[in-house]
Amino acid sequence: MSQSSDTAKDKSGRRYPLRMPPGWTPPYPSFMSEFDAARRSASMVVMGCQFEDGDRATAFEFVSRMVLLAEAEGKADHADLSSCEADSAGRAQFVMTGYWLKPDALEHFFESAAFQTLWQRHSAEALPHGIFREVFNVPLERFETLHSDPTHLVGVAHAREEVTDPIDRHAYWGSMRDRIPASADNPFDPSGTIEILEQSANRILLRPGENLAVIRSGQDLGGVHGQEREEYYGEVEPVLNAGMAFLRDQGAEVNCLDCRYMVFVDGSGEKTDHTFGLAYFRSLSDLENWSEHHPTHLAIFNAFLEFAPRYGPAMKSRYWHEVSVLPAQSQIAEYVNCAPGTGLLSGL
User: Fold this and answer.
1) Which of 10, 265, 273, 344 is most buried, most CB within 10 Å of its CB?
2) What's the rounded Cα separation, in Å, for the pair 136 and 156?
3) What angle do CA 265, 321, 210 make, to 5 degrees?
4) What's the longest Cα–Cα distance across the chain?
5) Would you tell me how many other CB atoms lie within 10 Å of the CB of residue 192?
């Protein structure tokens, strides 16, 4: 980890000052999830099945079964189900994203007979589909959330203790970093490379480099009708889709290792009106540079800044994100029968 120990702290006690402009007033309200001060970390697991059309039913059975096991056997604090029609390898995915606030519960889940039986059943070399699990142990001092609606529960918010009042650290460049507590003293410089821990004919276990940035950012149009819905799908969604496609197909230009534009699905695998992007960047600085300077994200940002203030607190559509900056220790990803370039394999 690169950190300048002799950088002087400012009057607020920060070694690296906030980028919030003086007298800043956000153009629309946003909120953050809060967790018990005694809680130090949470775990996020992205577990899925990569498949082609003929294996859709098998893939859905595997992932939907994992959701049930995570909740019942694994005591997950929350687990959700989503799909991606085309990943970086051109294949589809069904994905479970699970959250554990108790690390022991996740460890016991992975060691359980129920998990091991299901995982091994889908790990044989001859199978046409791939499975993967990307396991991120997130120090909460390296984590931030943002919500447009304080009552909207999605992702880790299902396990939160409280939600803040409207915050001022949002809607300006650098606000994402400003919301991460450890950014006061840590620049989160990237170091190291993706390390292969184990490898066989059809399986790779790896560890990402230091300060990998993970962002899960979504938009929920469920129950939204009329003008707001028309304007979102006419003005915001097209540029969002283009930005996600750029990160998926040309992400190496901006040090994005992987991006999936996903949609939540129901218990039958049917799509909802709730989408999100899941992206892995080499570092927080790389994510910030794409956000602040690349035309694909500037188009998204500007479209949203034109759209959201029209509705203010009356806006029915809901927006959220989660961002973590991860120490390499305790992060692992496993890919079995997956296409080259899937997920963090793209960084090898």
Assistant:
1) 344
2) 13
3) 110
4) 62
5) 13
CB 56 within 8 A of CB 30: no
Which tokens sit at 34? 């809060």
pLDDT, tens digit, 9 for 90 and up, residues 17-57: 999 999 999 988 999 999 999 999 999 999 999 999 899 99
276-290 confidence digits (pLDDT tens): 999 999 999 999 999
SS3 300: helix
Handedness of CA 276, 97, 127, 59 (dihedral sign): negative
Q: Which of 252, 267, 333, 224 is closest to 71 using CA atoms?
A: 267
Alpha helices in 73-195 (DSSP H): 103-111, 113-121, 175-178
Task: Scan for tokens 């970390």, then name that residue.
Answer: 41
| DSSP state letter for 24 | -
Tell me the per-residue pLDDT of 176-212, one tens digit each, with 9 for 90 and over.
Answer: 999 999 999 999 999 999 999 999 999 999 999 999 9
DSSP, residue by residue, 205-238: EEEPPBTEEEEEEEEE-TT--HHHHHHIIIIIHH
Q: Where are the domains of the chain?
A: 33-347
What CA–CA distance (Å, rounded) separates 324 from 252?
20
